[in-house]
Amino acid sequence: MRMHEQLDDDVDGESKKPLLNISKKLYGRENETTSIMETLERVTTGNLQSALITINGYSGIGKTTLIKNIQQQYHTPGHFIVGKYDQFKRDVPFHPLIQAFRELIVTVVKNSMINVFKEQLEKLLSINAQIMIDVIPELEMIIGPQEPTLHVSPQESVIRFKKTFRDFVSAFAQPSHPLIIFLDDVQWVDQSTLSLMSDLMLCENLVIMLAYRTNEVVKDHPLLDVLTQIEKKHFTQSIALEPLSVYDLVNLVSDSLQSESGTVEPNLDCQDYEFKVKYDSDQHTLASILSRKTMGNPLFVSMLLSDLCNDDLIRYNSINNKWEWSSDDINERRISDGVVEMIQFRFYKLSLESQHALSTAACIGSVFDVELLEHVEPRGGLLLSPLVKEGFIVVTDNSSTSEMQFLHDKVHQVAYGLVDMNERQKIKLKIAQTLLDTTPATELDNIIFVIMNHFICAFDLIKTTLELYSTAKLALRAGLCAKSKTAYFISSQYFQFGIDLMTRIGQDVMWSVNFYSSTFDLYLNLCEVLYLSKQFDQVNKIYPYLIQQCNNEVDSAYVYVIQSCQHELLQDYTTSVSITTNSLKKLGIDFPEINDCEGIKNKLDQETRQLDVDQLNLLLEYPETTCPRHIVVMQTLMSIWSAAACLGNPEMTSLCCCMIINYSIRHGVCDYTGPGLALFSYTAGQVTGSYKNAYLLGKAGYDLINKSPTKTSSIPKVCIGFSAGPQLFGEPISKSVACMKLGLETSLKCGNIPYATYLAHHIVTDMFFSGEHLTNVKEQYDNCMCFLEQNNPFIYIYAQQCVRPIVSLWTPCAPSDTNDTCFKNLHLSPLHRLINQYAQVVEAFYFEKTEQWILISDECETELSLLLIGGCKVAEVAFCRAMIYLGHDYPHDFDPSHKQQCLSRADAFIKQYTEWSLSCEENFSYKLQLLLGEKARISGNEVQAHAHFKTALSLSEKYKMKHYEGMSYELLGKLSLRLNKTEDALFYLNCAAVTYSDWGAEGKRNWLSTKYKLAAQ
User: Fold this and answer.
1) CA-based diameter of the chain, in Å?
2) With helix as H, strand as E and coil as C, how does 273-297 read?
3) Where is the Orc1-like AAA ATPase domain (predicted)?
4) For residue 904, how many other CB atoms are within 10 A of its CB?
């Protein structure tokens, strides 16, 4: 027999004295119910994507009862789940959300609905499924065991967790079955849930309902900031519950006393709406008294009715078969000032033993397991029988457990305070130890936050060295668990609690050999979560102390890496690099200072000379290094790379990657080897002078991550380094696009939003370079720009400049000179100014706006040559610059030396394209033929020029490069015009216009038709 069934039997076994059954019906909320139901209907029918409904009012006003009534009325196929915050469990991250979804999953399994959701969950969660299983273990009953969670950076972990949770919710929030989540008592919401709330609102077919106490959510409450942000982007509805009117109390009293409504009807002639009994108009009716005494608070009314019954002021007359009362007696009775005082008065009548059992139950939680209560407090369940009888404690809806709950949080609050602080600490300690002893090791993480919160309350009673150490290790485990769920603020509290416990052992002892590892882990993780939760002042005080306590350079290096990440987060990149270079020196690694340009150049030359490209394939066979020293060296180098990249220092980024590669060849590969190879390959063509070697480096990095599927978190860096750079020199551009799309997909799954933004705009430009139809490019562009605008304003501006020539090609109206932006806009950042110059060059070539470029070419060439160091953009801009230099009609008064300089630059680009064409004909051969054709033309060899253009046409058709096919026709037409072959010229130019149109370049087609007066095609 279950414990709560036993309690029921005990209650039923007592005398059958009639009980006053307070009505549980909903009164006076018709308008609110209708309003909420209408919103639910709009979401259910698809007329509203999602909605946030807030229900606020004072304690006991009926917020929960209103939602329960809504839940009973909501019959649409969907899911209505409920979670409730506990005032004494505020530090348990996502507690009510987890509670609600655990019950939902159990329902899914119980109702044999696994197949309905299994495929959808697997599809949406993909490689991140284990993240949700760690949060909601019951999920494994639906999707089965999953691969371990991939390690990513803390910043990526936050984004990944939010996206994964959102995907999880989306699996249940479908058009055919919307999801309604009701979270009660949100005034006690934890910070982790708050940070997740806005992300959840992005789900469709979702309604979130939040109930909170008006008087506890005041202007500084963090909930209000979140609600304000949500209101700006989503549909919201606010319901404020007022006290019950006198009319509502008529029905409540009538239903509770099972009397005819006429005996408690309101006399509307009374000035204060007092209730009069029709047959005794001189007496106040019970309803009028309740109205005055309780201010219309439903909970207070129910409690007062029950209290009056217990004191026989309301009594049942078995002869007349009705309830009776004396209004005078009730009027004269002193009524407590509020619900709390009334509950206290009742509980103080219990025996001390019963009070202790009641307080123990309250220490367990607002919902408590009776079997756990019996472990901590023998006979506890039986001692609570009177309170079950009176309704202060009720059986939960989950009949499969022995759970019970307090009627209201006010009841819970009073019960919690029945014993003093010292006694409560003893109870909490016993609860924690009982849970720890009775929970299987495999299930410990599921309730570790609950256990730790009990231990935290019992801090003063944990005294022996063994108790302090074992509890500190448990705190470390709880902190890591919270950290994995990105609940950084809460995890910092657990780590700090563990440190406080170790400190009580003694400063000298805690850093001794036996305790060093646990103490260091507590401090190191505390530093990380403090900076991630932006508690910078606190963590800055810890760094010097922790570094001083480290007993080896490797541990010091881990501290320095975290410290450098903090400065990178604050965009203080110079300090970040300074910290990590100092760390490398302590590890015995020579690395120049950031301002030592000569030292960086010399060190890079030294490392590139040591680099043996022939050994790259051997890296695939190398074992992974497990040496902490080797790993932290490469981690530190990658940390420097990240900050140096933000500083725009390509020499230092190249040095970091080259050192990682050489270090891997000497000591074995690790998580940083693949990214090191790929990211170095991006600049290696210029650094080593061999684009073939650059391709081999990038390919080795890409093969390395393909060999190890568990290295998924490295894919974004590898993909952007390889596909945006050297892959072009060994494989068709279409493969680069596919590689980038893989990187983008993985970035989103891993929560690496920065790299997702980098890859997103590269995909647009490389789809253009690959000859993809411009309709498809435009669709990708629209999606990309929306994504960038939301997630990376800096890259959004960069991408706007980058794709401007492409937009000009598909826009029917060709760009006018008046719309040109200045080549040297001083308001732009260096990177934005650079990409603006790139866009101007490409647009100048396609639309023959070459004069301005020629005039300022000396000024722009230096920057373009220094910064555009790899990939399709450098190849494209080199081609356009060479074609402008060769194709420009130089005036007679043009400076001869400047002209010769321009033509010499074109020769250098032709030489470069000759090398590139040998490495990958599919990407460069037709461009080389166009360059050679222009070179032959200006040399006076029109026949050879014609042959080169025809070869270019053939090659571009072969490789399905529509834009270069159109360009070949265009140059053949222009050549024919110069030779006065008008008929041939018109033929070629018309072919060019048709080809451009077929490609989707209406802007270019219209410009060509207007310039050469071509007939409409």
Assistant:
1) 126
2) CCEEECCEEEEECHHHHHHHHHCCC
3) 25-202
4) 10
CA atoms within 13 A on the CB side of 503: 10
Residue pair 920/729 in contact (Cβ under 8 Å)? The answer is yes
CATH of the domain at 69: 3.40.50.300
- Report if residue 342 sits inside a domain: no
The half-sphere exposure of 711 on its side-chain side, counting CA atoms within 13 A, is 22
Report the pLDDT averaged over residues 276-291. Answer: 54
Considering its fold, how many domains does the chain have in total? 2
CB atoms within 10 A of CB 75: 6
> Are 74 and 193 found together in one domain?
yes
Q: Which of 970, 965, 806 is nearest to 887 (CA)?
A: 970
Question: Which 8-state DSSP code applies to residue 419?
Answer: S
Q: Are 726 and 694 in contact (CB under 8 A)?
A: yes
Mean pLDDT of the chain: 85
- Asked, for residue 51, whether it belongs to a domain, the answer is yes
Radius of gyration, CA atoms only, the chain? 37
Give me the amino acid identity at 422.
N
Look up the domain containing 251 and give its range. Answer: 3-23+244-335
Chain position carrying tokens 């348990």: 92
Q: Which residue has the tokens 């058709």?
A: 957
Residue 71 CB partners (closer than 8 Å, separation 6+): 80, 82, 182
Kindly state the DSSP code that residue 177 receives in the 8-state scheme: B
Rounded to the nearest 10 degrees, the angle between the axes of helix 650-667 and helix 597-610 is 40
Look-up: residue for tokens 């350079």?
A: 553
CA distance 904 to 913: 14
Sequence-ordered list of residues with C-beta below 8 angstroms from that of 525, at least 6 positions apart, any chain: 476, 479, 480, 483, 491, 495
> What does 337-392 look like in DSSP terms, one character per residue?
SSHHHHHHHHHTTS-HHHHHHHHHHHHH-SEEEHHHHHHHSTTHHHHTHHHHHHTS
Residues 6+ apart with CB under 8 A from 284: 274, 275, 276, 327, 331
Counting beta carbons within 10 angstroms of the beta carbon of residue 857, is it exposed (0 to 12), middle (13 to 18) or buried (19 or more)? buried
Three-state helix/strand/coil letters over 639-691: HHHHHHHHCCCHHHHHHHHHHHHHHHHHHCECCCHHHHHHHHHHHHHHHHCCH
Tell me: do 226 and 257 sit in the same domain: no
**Alpha-carbon gap, residue 165 to 177, rounded angstroms:** 18
Give me 992's structure tokens: 């060019």
Shortest CA distance to 912 belongs to which of 685, 738, 695?
685
Reported as a single tens digit per residue, the pLDDT across 806-832 is 999 999 875 654 344 443 444 566 677
Q: Give yes or no: residues 134 and 225 share one domain.
A: yes
Residue 211, SS3 per DSSP: strand
- Residue with token string 């032959």: 936
Using a cut of 0.85, tell me whether the model's pTM lies above it. no
Same domain, residue pair 225 and 178: yes
Question: What is the DSSP-derived secondary structure letter of residue 334?
Answer: P
Please write the tens of the pLDDT for every residue from 588-625.
999 999 899 999 999 999 999 988 887 787 788 888 88
Assess if residue 815 is contained within a domain. Answer: no
Strand partners, 177: 174
Collapsed DSSP state (helix, strand, coil) of residue 209: strand
- Please tell me whether residues 287 and 148 are part of one structural domain: no
pLDDT (tens digit per residue) in 958-1013: 999 999 999 999 999 999 999 999 999 999 999 999 999 999 999 999 999 998 88
Residues 198 and 273 in one domain: no
Residue given tokens 């073939």 in the structure block: 692
Residues 864 and 834 sit within 8 Å (Cβ to Cβ): yes
Q: Report residue 511 CA to chain centroid gap.
A: 37
Do 177 and 77 meet the contact criterion of CB atoms below 8 Å apart?
yes
For residues 263 and 193, membership in a common domain is answered with no
Residues 185 and 263 in one domain: no
Cα separation of 39 and 361, whole Å?
38
- Distance from C-alpha of 632 to C-alpha of 623, rounded to nearest angstrom: 17
Q: Which residues contact 943 (CB under 8 A, 6 or more apart)?
A: none
